[in-house]
Amino acid sequence: MRELIQRLSRHPFITIELLLASFFANLLGLASSLYIIQLLNRYVSHGVDATLFTLTSGVCIAVIFEFAFRRVRSILAGSVGKERNYQMMLGIFSVLTKGRMKSLDTIPQRLRQEIMKGSNSVEDAYKPANINALFDLPFSFMFLGVLSYISILLGFITLCFMLLTVIIATFSKHLITPRIQQLTETSIKGNGLFSSANNSPDMIRLFDRGSFLLSKWRENSKDFLQQRNRMADSQDLLQGITRTVQSLLSISIYAAGAILAVKGNFNVGLLIGANILAMRAIAPINRVAQLGDAFTNASQSLERINRFASIETERDGGVALKNYQGSLKLNDVAFKYPGMKQPLFESLTLDISPGSVLVVTGENGTGKTTLTRLVSGLLEPDRGQILADGVDIRQLSLPWWRSCLTMVPQDIAFLPTSIKENLMAANPAIDDAAINRIINHSGLSSFIDQTSMGLDTQLTLNSEYLSTGYRKRLAIARALAVGGKLVIMDEPTEGLDPKGCNTIYSLLVALSQARYTMIIFSQDPNIIKGAGRILDLNSKPVPRIRTNKGTPAQANNGTLHENRTFHEKTTNLKRDNRVAAPNVNMVKKDEKTPAMKSHSLPKEKI
Q: Boundaries of each ABC transporter domain copy (predicted)?
């Protein structure tokens, strides 16, 4: 009910109109009862046709107006929740797209899906028909008052049955609430199993996990169906009890009214009219009682949604440097995920000058991907600073900072749209000529030529139908579309064939020659020998920096520049792999504003 009050409080004038529409609709609802009483007492007793015509015309007009008021009320009730439902769905998606990753990482994906589905439960619970039922509830006492005016005894009997219905509804709510919670948890587990089966069909078959998943699915489905059947049985029991209570009320009204009629204090017209009034008095309570499970489900969904919405989002503001030169400094950086006993790394101090190359090595789980997320602003260090051209990136505008990054993550995902739209999403200002040059230099030309739709080929989230090599090339093309001065590549040659590796090597040489700052996370020996410095994350808790000559340097010893540039060191690499660096110089784009610049491939040289 708190949610309903909040919705109504946002629209006070509509709430008043709802109350007035409900009042007149229920007031006109009295006409049918009064019509029966007058018809039996006046027309049947005296047989005057004019009386019949007058009574029938009057009640027909009342029924039409009652319908009109109820229709207006439904429209008003729909307008109360429309904006709230929109804002709720938008808020959930905003947290998914802009929430701080350190908090989002603690919420399983299947639970996020259930939270999004929960908005549908809330919307369904507070749809116009249900709001109308709640607004009819207080007018039960209007019908009860009219009935009590006719007969205090019949009014008292009706009041007792109304209280009995409330007690039954309250007991039912306490019975159903834990069952809904249990059903939701089972549903979340089932969603996780379905996602595993749907997203990883090859893995399931290759490693014979089908039987294992099937047994888990069978167990989950059995539990889910049992819980849902118990829920349905509880709902059916409640409906059966309310119908029984309604029937018993009708029987009690007729029995008590018959006694009064025998004593001469009542007549048949009043008896039938009194029964109609009693049914109108208890009907809203029965309807609200049957909505108990919907409101309970909505309440639990709202709790999850509100907890999810409390996740802090990434900052919107921040400064944008006029001309980012490509330098990056890590000053005493430390980071630890929640629940970990030891930090992934600490006391990491490193100065990366513009145009230099750093290769980061380390076994799985040593923090390579975490470091990329720290540098890109997806995560914030627990201690220390990350400085871009001397400015803490926590002071920078995150969209601007990420426009300075040419980034290829290890886990590759795409927007579910065309290849061209994926590239334009990375840089809306890019033109067709630049896109074609990027396609060529990322090694995608043959793939694009072989597809029937070319750049309009549709991608899925993970593009499972593409080979690892083509997914990697698409990710590189997207990164080149951004054209940031700081290049970050996480395992760029992983999963590539020799031809694909050669394409990457050539690209890295070209980027180095164009004096782009590069941080490459890789175990590839060809890439390692092409860097002046190597950051070893296997060294715990303080990562170690060494030169390619093998001279170690502790990370907290300050700046350590490489002795030779990357393109000098890759002369042998190019010769060994029989590739030549493409004639690529990546330069800055035209300034968008005096305060902000972004970078892309130059149109004349790609």
A: 328-564
Residue 462: per-residue pLDDT: 62
Q: Which long-range contacts (CB under 8 A, 24 or more apart) does 602-605 make?
A: 603/431, 603/433, 603/434, 603/437
For the beta carbon of residue 287, count every other beta carbon within 10 angstroms: 17
Query: How many C-beta atoms lie closer than 10 Å to residue 241's C-beta?
Result: 18
Residues 378, 235 within the same domain: no
Beta bridge partners of 345: 335
Cα gap 112→98, rounded to integer Å:
14
Whether the per-residue pLDDT at 125 is higher than 50: the answer is yes
Mean pLDDT of the chain: 82
At 212, the pLDDT band (50, 70, 90 cuts) reads confident
Task: Yes or no: say if 451 and 494 are a contact pair by the CB < 8 Å rule.
Answer: no
pTM of the complete model: 0.70
* Secondary structure (DSSP) of 414-450: --SSBHHHHHHHH-TT--HHHHHHHHHHTT-HHHHHH
Q: Is the same domain home to 304 and 362?
A: no
Q: How far apart are CA 55 and CA 42, in angstroms?
A: 10
**Residue 136 pLDDT > 70, yes or no?**
yes
Residue 263 is assigned to a structural domain of this protein: yes
Over residues 253-273, the pLDDT tens digits come to 999 989 988 887 788 888 998
**Burial level of 229, CB count in 10 A (0-12/13-18/19+)?**
exposed
- Report the domain count for the chain: 2
Q: Tell whether 314 is covered by a domain.
A: no
Same domain, 554 and 505: yes
- The residues, ordered by sequence, that sit 6+ positions from 304 with a Cβ below 8 Å of its Cβ are 111, 114, 115, 118
Residue 304 lies in a domain: yes
148 and 187 housed in the same domain:
yes
User: For 335-360, what is each residue's pLDDT tens digit?
Assistant: 988 778 888 888 889 999 998 899 99
Structure tokens at 421: 């739209």
319 in a structural domain: no
In this structure, the answer to whether residues 486 and 532 fall within a common structural domain is yes
- Amino acid 562: pLDDT: 38
Q: Are residues 287 and 345 in the same domain?
A: no
What's the CATH code of the domain at 513?
A: 3.40.50.300
Q: How far apart are CA 79 and CA 379, in angstroms?
A: 40
Distance CA 564, CA 437 (A): 30
CA R_g for the chain: 36
The three-state DSSP-derived secondary structure of 452-495 is CCHHHCECCCCCCCCCHHHHHHHHHHHHHHHCCCEEEEECCCCC
Residue 56 structural domain = 2-309
- Range 101-108 average pLDDT: 82
Domain boundary among 276, 309, 342: 309
Q: Are strands 357-361 and 517-521 parallel, antiparallel or unpaired?
A: parallel
In whole angstroms, give the CA distance from residue 53 to residue 396: 80
Verify that 40 and 89 share a domain, yes or no: yes
- Are 339 and 255 found together in one domain? no
* Cα three-residue angle 108-113-115, rounded to 5 degrees: 95
279, pLDDT greater than 90: yes
